From TrEMBL, chains A, B:
This is Ribonuclease J. The gene is rnj. Residues 38-232 form the Metallo-beta-lactamase domain. It is an enzyme of class 3 (hydrolase). Homodimer, may be a subunit of the RNA degradosome. One of its GO terms (biological process) is rRNA processing. An RNase that has 5'-3' exonuclease and possibly endonuclease activity. Involved in maturation of rRNA and in some organisms also mRNA maturation and/or decay. It holds the Pfam family RMMBL. GO terms for molecular function: 5'-3' RNA exonuclease activity; RNA binding; RNA endonuclease activity; zinc ion binding. Binds 1 Ca(2+) cation per subunit. Seen in 1 crystal structure, it is not clear if it is physiologically important. Binds 2 Zn(2+) ions per subunit. It is not clear if Zn(2+) or Mg(2+) is physiologically important. Keywords: Calcium, Cytoplasm, Endonuclease, Exonuclease, Hydrolase, Metal-binding, Nuclease, RNA-binding, rRNA processing, Zinc. It is found in: Cytoplasm. Belongs to the metallo-beta-lactamase superfamily. RNA-metabolizing metallo-beta-lactamase-like family. Bacterial RNase J subfamily. Coiled coil: none annotated.
Amino acid sequence: MTSSDTVTFDSNRSVANPPKLRPGTLRIVALGGLGEVGRNMTVYELDGKLLIVDCGVLFPEEEQPGVDLILPDMGHIKDRLDDVIGVVLTHGHEDHIGAVPYLLRLKQDIPLIGSQLTLALIEAKLQEHRIRPLTLTVKEGQTEQLGPFSCEFTAVNHSIPDALAVMIRTVAGNVLHTGDFKMDQLPLDGRITDLRAFARFGEEGVDLFLPDSTNADVPGFTATEREIGPVLEQKFAAAKQRIIVASFSSHVHRVQQVIDAAAKHRRKVALVGRSMVRNMSIAEKLGYLHVPEGILVDLKDVEKLADDRVVLMCTGSQGEPMAALSRMANGDHRIKLNQGDTVILASSLIPGNENSVFRIINSLMYLGVDVIHKGTARVHVSGHASAGELLYCYNIIKPKNVMPVHGETRHQLAAAKLAHQTGVPVKNLMMCDDGTVVDLKGGVAKIVGQIDIGYVYVDGSKVGLVTDEDLKDRRVLAEEGFISVVCAVNRQTGKIVTGPDILARGVAETDRAFEEVKPKIAQALEEAVRDNKGHTTHQLQQVIRRVVGSWAGRKLRRRPMIVPVVVEV
Amino acid sequence: MTSSDTVTFDSNRSVANPPKLRPGTLRIVALGGLGEVGRNMTVYELDGKLLIVDCGVLFPEEEQPGVDLILPDMGHIKDRLDDVIGVVLTHGHEDHIGAVPYLLRLKQDIPLIGSQLTLALIEAKLQEHRIRPLTLTVKEGQTEQLGPFSCEFTAVNHSIPDALAVMIRTVAGNVLHTGDFKMDQLPLDGRITDLRAFARFGEEGVDLFLPDSTNADVPGFTATEREIGPVLEQKFAAAKQRIIVASFSSHVHRVQQVIDAAAKHRRKVALVGRSMVRNMSIAEKLGYLHVPEGILVDLKDVEKLADDRVVLMCTGSQGEPMAALSRMANGDHRIKLNQGDTVILASSLIPGNENSVFRIINSLMYLGVDVIHKGTARVHVSGHASAGELLYCYNIIKPKNVMPVHGETRHQLAAAKLAHQTGVPVKNLMMCDDGTVVDLKGGVAKIVGQIDIGYVYVDGSKVGLVTDEDLKDRRVLAEEGFISVVCAVNRQTGKIVTGPDILARGVAETDRAFEEVKPKIAQALEEAVRDNKGHTTHQLQQVIRRVVGSWAGRKLRRRPMIVPVVVEV
């Protein structure tokens, strides 16, 4: 391959502040979702108006201890909220809607645009935040003029019903934003990704295409959800006692198949887990989930039923420690599992969760439970289009420019290479990070700048208070613990009144080890006070920090956090 | 399946202290390696003498922050070290030899028995600990009488050369302990797992069989190492610039294939990483690695070579942050990778390391590096026998009793089910945890007790000082940080002299938030001193802990560690 044939992130590296946006040019900036799977949020700007597509959260990794959620960095738009026309939500998954409450806290009357189910899910979530949003419900085939953006909504198939792609027509050009999708040709609800619409958009001209890249490095085609039903039925037929199925709480079609298999085998179903109960109640009310009369029972009534008449449909398939499945595995749940029960993990295994999930599988197996998971049976299919499906898309749409979104670097590159193989020139592949600024006009897309994008951490009730510095402290505390040294000093006499006292936590040392350093601290402190009575408390604390830090490094071969406290009396 | 057909850990649950061991009965206790992959160590006891097989380490998970290694719990033998005849080391991997230095620190003259390469590797490691061990080098086919244990050593094939199984003959019965193995029928060095010996042992009678269970839940057969060579060659032929191969530092055959491919494509090889350099130098000296004259170069000379003449063979394939590969990905290494370079991860992906490894892959790809890994090409095969191979073993050996070792619960159960399918009755399957006591006599194996086995943590230079309580502290510190409150109190006047001062680290709060709680602390303290002058310092600190803890829970919705310090003046 010559260099012009190689897809890289190169173009992106030398760019700095974007130029002022000219009238009639469309600007696209992702505030999250690039280089990561999560916190999807893309801002379209034209003639002073902003249209946002999706507003999701990212789940933290072990490098971010104590963090609950990570939000898109909204700094880019926070002073321009009055210019926001609305937020299009492509579907109801957390990585696409989870940050909406935090956006609406900044300005409550930003309209939300989405399908019936998507809006119902976000409304339920906003209710917990005591926010009643302005909404506009749209359907596939519908077009809405949102400021300078004409949005046509199109059906796409995904692992949640009622997902939409959006074709955004503007004076600057046409953009097709898929949201998450796959191309199951035999979906349970018959609602396929609308390739006829994609073809029509292609004929008309798609100047910029933003496809879901998540599975771009998976060869072939994602299997149909329909293949799972027979496997579930077979496992249900073989099960002699209770069946517990764990999956995602928004996967309506998966739950539907569990309910259908239960009905066939004359079992009752109890939904377990707050989000499972809430989402399925919404899905049923709106007609997305079909529940035969009398099949659902309350968890508390399960114990009255014979074991071979029970299915528990629960959350916790990713090993979340507080979820029902984990508690059942540890014997901390009212449902006590034992030999002969069957647990089916009808879910993916999200990278990073392997240890937690296998810990649960081992614990269940130790109890004698028969555990079935995607490693042993086809009880899960992905929600994202694989490489083969993306090739269909590129060939039908023939986009002028492609900006792969919704993926890590490796996914974005794979998606770009597929585009290139179908004929998109390398220079028309927008390889972007969060904050990379792409301008589009007259069929030409160009990276014109880069804005700073940080992680915005949610920790408990606090948003954005946890800094990367705090997380560094937490990692040090986790690895090394801390040593606190307390000393009361009389400045007049230059003498130590009390201490030094040492308190250590998380440091693997005996109290005796610390006795050794106390005289060194005392000596250094008294010298410091004697030599220069002008020392500030802070300077005296620095003396302690130096003595203890170098002693711990030398003698203990450790680098704990040193917390010196000098009290002047 | 009837209950007697179901393999479970049941038998194990009700047992308590083992009975006194009678003369002529063989007792088997694993001090590590069951329910986990790592810290393999099995103790055989007969007529007052102990034979140990393997003595390895376990690598910690994210639940064990700051821990470097986890050792087998040697409490069971620590008062009986004079009875230890020796330690048989089946092969030179860390999970089988890594804890030897810690055992020899307890008693330096315990003999080590193993193959030439295995002993060379442990001797190099012991040199760093300044220990010169007593050793007995053995070969396949050789029998040694070790106290009451007659040990015949047998060649097995694994992902390190010179691995041995051991047939232990005693008055109580015969035990075949495989160590780690697979049954590559075309290994690079021609040294296959000796099924003729296994057949002979079977004819003679194997009363208890302890097989490597690691891949028992993987269907079929592990592919031959030989398949990797052509793939490497093809990638080497296509590479236009530098090639970096990452793998395990003990995988002599993998390195051999890299060297062979490099020689064929007229590239020089630099070994990178301390353990890689050390192990390969040992392997070459002993004749396990064949290095063509002049092919190896020093890392510092690599820069003088043209990019298409270079291969770097390095460690870090599991994403270890300090290893060469990770530093290259982050641009922190003297070798600066860029567009057109090729990185091959010729390694497995150990569960739990996914995030770190994919982070490196993403960073490399972002630099424009072509990354090849086992997900995209056959550049790795496992070192362990899959289900198909284990079936061959069971059928050739026809063991009376089976105790699956070297695996998590799910692996042990899979190995046991395979044994059962070949005809081993369920009651003859020893489903054991670490510390489960199995007695063998006259062809009958029985679980007779359970001894307590804990985790022994190595943290820096300290062994066993870190407790589970410390780790709990560390996890709290990581998730929540700490709030330290310092107050100087004059007991005579009952007044606070200085403070309360608050210092928080890792807590996501503004300083202003803490101002709110200070008067509450002061008030509670003064009340406590006023009400009862007999309060100890500890009690006053408890007062602070209560006030701050409940305030943080209520107002901040957090549970940080509270560190109260009261100085009495």
